[in-house]
Amino acid sequence: MTVSGSSSPVDGSNATSFTVDVLFPPDVPTLHMSGKEVTGTVKIIEGNSKTFNCSTESNPVSSYSWIYPRGSSSNRILQVNNFRSESYDGDYTCQVQNRIEPSFGNSKENVSMATISVDVLYGPKAGTLHNVSKVRGEIFVYQCLYTLGNPPTVDFEWTRSGTDVSWIKQNTHNLTIPSVQRSDEAIYTCNVSSLLRPTLTLATTTQYDTATFHLDILYGAENLLLQLNNVSQSSVEFDEHSSNHMRCSLESDPGSNMALTKDGKTIIARSGVHQLTHDLQAECSDAGVYTCSGYNQYGAADNASVQLFVKCSARRPTGVEVQLNFTARKHENATLVYKTVAYPVPKPQEFVWKRCTNRISCELVPDEMNKFEIYTEGLSSKLTILDVQIEDYRLYQLEVSNGVGDTLVEWLHLRPIGKPDTPMDFHVIQDTIRETSAVLTWIAGFDNGSPQEFHITYRKVADDTGYITQNVKHDNRVEMNYTVVNLKPGTEYFVSLISANEEGSSSPVNVTFLTLKRINDQTETSPNTGPVFGGAVGGTVGAIVAIVVVVIILRRNYALNCNVTWTKRGGPSEHSISGKDNLGYNAAKTYEVVSMTTDTSVYDDLKTGDSGADNSHVYTPLEETRSKAHVYYENVKKDDPIYNNTVLKNPVQTVL
Question: Do residues 171 and 157 touch, judged by C-beta distance below 8 A?
Answer without folding.
Answer: yes
